[in-house]
Amino acid sequence: MTGLIAASTSAADKRAAFKAGLTSGQIQRFPGAFNPLVAKLIQEIGFEGVYVSGAVLAADLGLPDIGLTTLTEVAGRGQQIARVTELPVLIDADTGFGEPMSAARTVTVLEDAGIAGLHLEDQVNPKRCGHLDGKAVVPTGAMVRRLRAAVAARRDPNFVICARTDAAGIEGIDAAIDRARAYAEAGADLIFTEALNTVADFEKFRAAVPTPLLANMTEFGKSELISAERLDSIGYNAVIYPVTTLRLAMFAAEAGLREIFATGTQAGQLDRMQHRARLYELLQYERYNEFDSEIFNFTLEGNQ
After folding, report:
1. Any catalytic annotation for residue 92?
2. pLDDT digit string (tens) for 65-101?
3. N or C, where is the chain less crowded by C-beta within 10 Å?
4. What is the pTM (predicted TM-score) of this model?
5. For residue 8, what are the contacts with CB-CB under 8 A and spacing of at least 6?
6. Domain covering 21-250 assigned CATH 3.20.20.60 in the classification
7. Is 162 a catalytic residue?
8. Any catalytic annotation for residue 51?
9. Which of the residues 77, 119, 146, 179 is marked catalytic?
10. Domain boundaries of the chain, sorted by first residue
11. Is 276 annotated in the active site?
12. 144 dihedral zone (left: phi>0; alpha: psi -120 to 50; beta)
């Protein structure tokens, strides 16, 4: 039964693992999961954590990443994902869904959902995708208030509060470094600088900021795709791959649907599908059957 219907690792232990991982000397790799089943796959393959992207959650709802999703929607999907995996889950909380008091409430709601950490960004609300142009950031003082409210609301000291800054592409890297230092002073455990361009940019940030750092390796954006090994050697503590699994899945789904539309059958797609047996293996069907038999396999004796 352990770890079958839900993860056996407590939320507190997942948070402790995430916090410890940031200072372990080994980069923590957090691929994005667009649903709980993908989170189970991420765990099985051996990654250190699971990421829940706001852009992916919005896309899953058929919406652009412009701040249309709500705290309730984000917390609900985060809880569904966190409950099935033994790994810590880091979730994108956008700007905190409102003013500093809203950011404080966001922390408590996501703690209750079993999440291990969140990131808050310094964009003006409503936000834009971090790799698009036309973004605007709030003054440093406003983001510091947002972060202080979040830190004050935290009940589990191991719940990781990550501060994301989008200032590099707007005000320059030096300004982003200044912001990162102010955010760390406000209590952020981890700093996420969005849309750095080159290895040299990542190296410059690492040299200037002593706080643990997170790198975003998203495809088709402004950042050069750097391997986890290279980021580790630079000294980064965590890396996310936010949209990768959704992009892979949607590309395959579109190709398959177009072939069915054109030919009237999916027969030519079978070698590109996850087999039913593999799905059952991932879902641990056999263990459910054993559990069901142990619970309900009994006889009634002595009853007339």
Report:
1. yes
2. 988 999 999 999 999 999 999 999 999 999 999 999 9
3. C
4. 0.94
5. 2, 86
6. yes
7. no
8. yes
9. 119
10. 21-250
11. no
12. alpha
